[in-house]
Amino acid sequence: MNQHHRVTIAAICSAALLWTALPSGAPADTFVIGAEPLQQRQQAEVSISMRGEGGRPARLAVPEFVVTGDEAGRAAAATVSQVLFDDIEFEREFTMISRTAASKIAPAPADALAYDTWNELGADFVLAGTASLAANVLTVEVRVVSVERRLSTFGKRYACPVRDPRYCAHTIADELHKELFNLDGIARTKLAFASDRDGERLGGTIEERSIKEIYISDYDGGKQMRLTPHRSLNIAPTWSPDNRFLAYTSYTSGFPDVVVQSIYEARAATRPAKGTPNSQNYLPAFSPDGARLAFASSRTGNFEIYTMRLDGSELRQVTSHPGADNAPTWSPNGQQIAFTSDRAGQNHIYIVSADGGPITRLPTGGGKVDRPTWSPVPFNYIAFTAEVPGGNHVRMIELGTNTVTTLTSAFQGSNESPSVAPNGRHIAFVTTQWGKEHIVIMGRDGKLERRVTTSGNNKYPSWSKR
Amino acid sequence: MNQEFRTRMTHSLRLRTLLALALVGTTTLAACGGKKPPVPATAPPPSAVTFPGATTPNRPPDPPAPVPEPPPVIPVEPAPIASDPLASLDTDEINRQSPLAPVFFGLDSDTVDAEGQKVLDANAAVLRKYPTWAITIEGHSDERGSAEYNLALGERRALAVKGYLLSLGIAADRIRTVSYGKEFPFDPGQNETAWSKNRRGHFVVTGK
């Protein structure tokens, strides 16, 4: 039995719980949600497997919370409960018992669960929650209780700003996955992408072209917001490792150039590649330590890969070939860069030392490929776009075995531009399945997709690094 | 009446830029008569411009060029000098008239074919006629293929068009290039008719 899937727990108790002063009033996402473990009356060294029979994922029910308070408290608690369900379902450490099935059993606090009824429903665990609202603070207590052992394996109280129940749920989901499975969840991660959803047009020319601006959202599509005001073409955002900056390709000056923009702080955007009409720069990517950007530039007359420090200093040319070298992505340790090149006639993916030198071609199979995205550790794969008759599919190649897998077989239309979640278990990409271009996320096995965007055309997704 | 007309024209001339001098006197007079003459295929360079009765600084007193009898002048305020429909327009208006035709490409190709060369020969003539124009050549692709690859393909197309114009003697400092990949399709359709329109080197006049 995997030790990560066993937790040492304490017997559940109904004794008085610790209470501490709770923070409030900070803005969403910069707010540190107050969280504390629920006190246990007696420490019982009991080991409970978080797996079901035969090692299958355990079956978890997430019923509605027991709420004390007014309508606002009930609405916020309902959101926390639903988003928490969605977060846990997406990570797939549990098999979820549907909300509809769970709703047949009356909500109850963790110490009053109808264990027999939950057992009949097939639940191995129940996530039982209570919530109360006071002074705009939603206090949420959650426990994950083993139906068989009638013991709590996870118990915490959270003080959440009531205006942001989604972030409250995402926090609980991440802490739950960390404590129960030693897993870095992605519930508080973000996506960045380019979109024309606001319907704004370029001025001046007869073509009436749609502008694209950079947007960010929660990983699940919550809290979408526009980040750039350029009224021009802006594409291909990528996150800095600390999530404070986005680098992207902007045509604001009439030609493509790399722009680095702070997301949350009032500081001027920079153009470290110092683009000009004769020195155009594309598709930046932060190195894993955040110190350098890799990018493509046509300054010598065709596309080559370069790296530079964030202030534009220490420019290094990584590739030099008459073919077009493009779309760089860093290896997790920052020692190598994967990129595309059409030097052999059609686009292939190559790997080169970040300092340049000999290149190695990846055996990605037939057809043109594009947009390599190197997975984080402990995985070691590169997701990429592969051209197929009628469009593109997202594929991945395991670097240990060179095994190539198609991830988007279940999708219609064209599917491209993958970006990998920071825990390596999920992929965001663009699909035309629903007509226009939309961002979708799913597992790296191609299962359990979630649509992220609904309006306009949305492309070039980038999953945040943490 | 004719004298008064010429006096007003002279006065008007002094207020205008050298660009107005690029106009052909004969057609200008005709335009003032209320008719739009056809635009000549090639205009003489500015130094060849003469203007009957006009006295311009630094101009030798050339004999008047042969001028056809102007048509009867309607007694209204003379129209602005606009015999050349493009010369007096701002760049937005010029671009709406698309005086420089696009060059189309085959699938995944950056080769300017014979038909494209014919288009560029004509475009070069226009650029010689308007030697102050600066242009941007935009490289575009159809929606097939991947977004990042098409950025590089669009750049290659724009550079191929620029290279051909350079070979025709158009000055490099008049030409900028930019690739938009598949971001700005001209026809949103998902068929070969649309795609063939979207694989192009597109011309925009950016300065005059």
Secondary structure blueprint with pairings:
The complex is a heterodimer of chains A (466) and B (208).
Chain A: E1 6-9, E2 34-37, E3 46-49, E4 58-61, E5 66-68, H1 71-91, E6 94-97, H2 99-102, H3 115-120, E7 125-134, E8 137-146, E9 151-161, H4 165-181, E10 190-195, E11 213-218, E12 225-226, E13 234-239, E14 245-250, E15 257-262, E16 281-286, E17 292-297, E18 304-309, E19 316-317, E20 325-330, E21 336-341, E22 348-353, E23 359-361, E24 369-374, E25 381-388, E26 391-398, E27 404-406, E28 415-420, E29 426-431, E30 438-443, E31 450-451, E32 458-463
Parallel strand pairs in A: 4-6, 4-7, 5-7
Antiparallel strand pairs in A: 1-3, 2-9, 7-8, 8-9, 10-11, 10-32, 11-12, 13-14, 14-15, 16-17, 17-18, 18-19, 20-21, 21-22, 22-23, 24-25, 25-26, 26-27, 28-29, 29-30, 30-31
Chain B: H1 2-15, H2 18-21, H3 25-32, H4 91-96, E1 103-104, H5 114-129, E2 134-140, H6 147-167, E3 175-181, H7 192-198, E4 200-207
Parallel strand pairs in B: 2-3
Antiparallel strand pairs in B: 1-4, 2-4
Question: What's this entry about, in short?
Answer:
The complex is a heterodimer of chains A (466) and B (208). Chain A has 466 residues and is mainly β. Chain A is built from 4 helices and 32 strands.
